[in-house]
Amino acid sequence: MTERRHDREFVRTFFTSPTAVEGEEDSAKMLRRAAQLRGMQAPDVWVPDNEDATAPSMRDEGVENIVEVVSEHGADFPGEIHPRMVWHRDSPTTRYQGFQHMLDVADPERGAIEHIDGFVIPEVGDIDDWKKADEFFTIVENEHGLEEGSLKMSVIIESGQAELAMGTLREEMGKPTNNLERLFLLVDGEVDYTKDMRAITPTGALPEWPELRHNTSRGASAAGLIAVDGPYDDIRDIEGYHERMQDNQAKGMLGIWSLTPGQVVEANQSPLPPKTGSWLLDTGDGEVELDSEDGVEVYEGDRVSLSETTDGYELTVGGSTQVLDSDELHEELLNMTAYIPSMDDIVDSMEEFEAAKEAGRGAIAMERSTTLRIGDTEVDIATDRMWDEATYQAAMTPISLFQDVYENRPDQHEELVEMYSEGVVERAMEVGL
Amino acid sequence: MTERRHDREFVRTFFTSPTAVEGEEDSAKMLRRAAQLRGMQAPDVWVPDNEDATAPSMRDEGVENIVEVVSEHGADFPGEIHPRMVWHRDSPTTRYQGFQHMLDVADPERGAIEHIDGFVIPEVGDIDDWKKADEFFTIVENEHGLEEGSLKMSVIIESGQAELAMGTLREEMGKPTNNLERLFLLVDGEVDYTKDMRAITPTGALPEWPELRHNTSRGASAAGLIAVDGPYDDIRDIEGYHERMQDNQAKGMLGIWSLTPGQVVEANQSPLPPKTGSWLLDTGDGEVELDSEDGVEVYEGDRVSLSETTDGYELTVGGSTQVLDSDELHEELLNMTAYIPSMDDIVDSMEEFEAAKEAGRGAIAMERSTTLRIGDTEVDIATDRMWDEATYQAAMTPISLFQDVYENRPDQHEELVEMYSEGVVERAMEVGL
Amino acid sequence: MTERRHDREFVRTFFTSPTAVEGEEDSAKMLRRAAQLRGMQAPDVWVPDNEDATAPSMRDEGVENIVEVVSEHGADFPGEIHPRMVWHRDSPTTRYQGFQHMLDVADPERGAIEHIDGFVIPEVGDIDDWKKADEFFTIVENEHGLEEGSLKMSVIIESGQAELAMGTLREEMGKPTNNLERLFLLVDGEVDYTKDMRAITPTGALPEWPELRHNTSRGASAAGLIAVDGPYDDIRDIEGYHERMQDNQAKGMLGIWSLTPGQVVEANQSPLPPKTGSWLLDTGDGEVELDSEDGVEVYEGDRVSLSETTDGYELTVGGSTQVLDSDELHEELLNMTAYIPSMDDIVDSMEEFEAAKEAGRGAIAMERSTTLRIGDTEVDIATDRMWDEATYQAAMTPISLFQDVYENRPDQHEELVEMYSEGVVERAMEVGL
């Protein structure tokens, strides 16, 4: 895999807070509250947001607030801290303002920069625009006696230009006249991207932009960076947020923006394997999770029914019935079912494969079996899946993520142990090393 | 947004006419008829098509017809005029023929070129092939005393090579040895693209090519150009044409090819906001538009039913029933409904946001409420949506399109006023300026 | 179309065999068996796999087995032979090992290389990594007195880097310091790609990666290469394999990996037009194939019903009923039906178009008609489809594939004639020449 240059190899959560809110007694109230989040409520990356979340007139005050709050609380904050500065590919005024704000925040005498891991640059354009931002980081580092390249740079992808720029990162990052190796997160910003692409939907809802998310994930893969999806506006729609994260994960985009501590909790947990495994049944109209009752997986819906006859079985799915013998039924049910492994299951399989490899075997069959109950009829099913080195490596991703979280977020240990049990956590930390 | 170099910022319609039809008394009949289209039947860009729509043996005569008909009718034609020439990345003969045809058409003594805005070049290959075409434009301009770069160049994307070339336009357009700033439209040509990609479908229907359309829209965004989709062959299938346009619009591709004046009317109207707003209900099996009866939005289908019980409500969707209290029902119905705003609604929201911004507020809540009737049960629903600068900017796209149309197409004023009313049109022309 | 440099213009099947299996009396058993496949069971490209299918400890022996088995059976093998070597973009050790293995296999004194068409290089990275492999091919050719560029190189795309590299092939292949013109197949490898992209799915199933497959097909189109999809693991799921191939074909990816001779048979047949045509009916819930009974196409499901009334017709689809007159019914049924043409049908249409073109006509209407029976009601439907040069060219793809197969695979002649009849095969070989 492409070399990664930073401590965190995974980022689940990117949580923004306004830096200065007008009309409050303490304009830094939101910052102060966010800085004290801990455990599952605290994000992997916290972003004091001096751009869109903060009114233009409040942004100078926002810089002061960042310095004050981070100086006070930064040492104890469990995640990384990456303030978002103003920037725009089409406005030198905005870019210069962003530069000045970075210079202010990074002054070591003010005590914040030692707790700050980098800055987030929105509204970047083509790769030469990214280099302008990178150059300001370099000057800031040089002026303040910080090591060159020590401040990470994350960007918001919210233009077609920036989407295209991600295709060139791998070759640009090696060039001698930039420090683009400081790049850390590639974060999609779908609201502004939609504007830049001039897209229209009848209700004003955001398009799904699957190609953008693929290209961001690919750009991250090719350059050793981390891909993060943009904000999910409908805060009440938890199910929708989960579906979006699952869709992202299948693209290799394991992080997402969070707008509230509630979303942070959901997004911190989403890419981790579940505590308990579960069986899915494909009813031809989507998949439903079966109820587990004393080791039997029970389907209670109407779309699928099964009955035993003198000759064999009748299986009805969505109104169409098949007459099957016992082997055919087994085959059909295997096609209709799938198993979501728990953390424990995954660790088991990996340990088993590691032992087999040690014993000189390159591929082994992993068995999975259960009893299904559909209506009053119970059937046993069992399936083998071949595991080879590639299967093992691909299955490693959620475990590597878990290990990265466990190493970098001691404040979440208690919740992780509570979720998985001490034993499973210990074994998960040993696997694949 | 990337600088746009041409008058029109939006193009809804790209309408092709054969330049010379064999066996007709007047081989220019189709051209003559198209040149006299007005109002919603007239396209934003009219394309006398001397390539695929015209038999190879008729193309020299086609050039003469273009000159004749455009000289006579061009001054009065309400849209832009961009004849399509022959071209092929793999054939120098074809390219030279295209060059000669352009030289003929552009001769100022013949009276057509003053009404012609540019030429369309089909079957382009990689970027160096685009440059060959551009160079011929430059020579044509020079030979005929036209300003260098004054003729716009539009291309048909109908090969994998050309799709890749769109990724490099932004950097190529600035180079000193070309005049690629003349580029105007990027038009997908899915029939030939399907051939070039060697794709097969069982029925011979065209694949949907979502990635091509994304990449065309992105290429246009990055280079300040306009993306247009290819022809929709099934002329009778108006619903299908609408669905395709809606899908395109969510990708930022706001223009489409039209093969008939009937398709032109549909495509000219499609990206404009509707006259009246409407509510959608997601029945779990797709969305249906509700009937509006005296301010109540009525669902009359079978899939969703709602009844009040002593404890609260029973909501049934597609056979599965939930028992909900009043708050839960409200939440559920909000998730199931969506509103398509009218032009009037959009202008209202934008004015409201502009006033708030003037008063120093960066974000405001826009309320939307109605009464739903499902079966015999009526429920009031109300929702807030937060608008900030980014929401405002994204909502601006259909308004900008409307303004561009209104400014450039006086021949459509009457129909637009009839559609929206004088007052709404006036307010829409003021918003966002 | 971009110039193709190799004999085969299409590859349907890419079949891998382990080169050395531990614990067998004859470690080359699998190779020996595969080398003797013939007809539909034999792949277009056979890949003795000295990488993932073979345990690392067995790979030196694997090289010996390749030499032995190919020397003995290579002359008679009906497809091309392309052994897969070890390679990794991140490991110079692995790359050097791959180079040494190629040197061994290619030694002309050992008698295998004259039957070997090229090598497959897995785990390539960015384009400069592809060039490293290409350079080793050149050295191998030079050392062994083979013509420079005579060994074809195929690569497995299993990283984001390699996906991006495909966007630059067209320009890189012309450069003087490489021999990348030897490139032949671009093969997706979704298991390792999933790992490289760090994607996660709940069940561990592979993501669909539609964008990767599009980009591979596009890369092949732009550079005159052939796109092949990766392995389909669930060997028993024949329906799933078919659906995957159909999805690939609509992307222009006409080849697929096969893991068993059974999959080879399916994949060799899949892109060929069917023996008999068939009608589809869109029931609003997917398309079903109608039963053909004495020239009448019969629908026997529940979702669609049709009855004649005194006023006209009642057509019910999925619970919603329309009252239609005879013309409206005809229109509606045309929208709901589609025809999958047989090889015979396609050849007929192409011959008809060729005759029309010879007679000076650029576009003709192809009629298609049948009688539908829904319930007890029979209706005749007839439709015209306009064919022009572009339609003709796009319809040519499956015929060109057939011709390529017929020319290169005499061992399949008998099965093809049995499938289509002598007459159809002969006419298919004449069309489009």
Automatic annotation (TrEMBL), chains A, B, C:
Keywords: Magnesium, Metal-binding. Its cofactor is Mg(2+). The keyword Calcium does not apply. Residues 279-393 form the Malate synthase H C-terminal domain. GO terms for biological process: oxaloacetate metabolic process. InterPro entries: MS, MSH_C, Pyrv/PenolPyrv_kinase-like_dom, Pyrv_kinase-like_dom_sf. PANTHER family: CITRATE LYASE SUBUNIT BETA, LYASE BETA SUBUNIT, PUTATIVE (AFU_ORTHOLOGUE AFUA_4G13030)-RELATED. GO terms for molecular function: catalytic activity; magnesium ion binding. It comes from the Archaea. This is Malate synthase. It comes from Haloferax elongans ATCC BAA-1513. Coiled coil: none annotated. The keyword Magnesium applies.
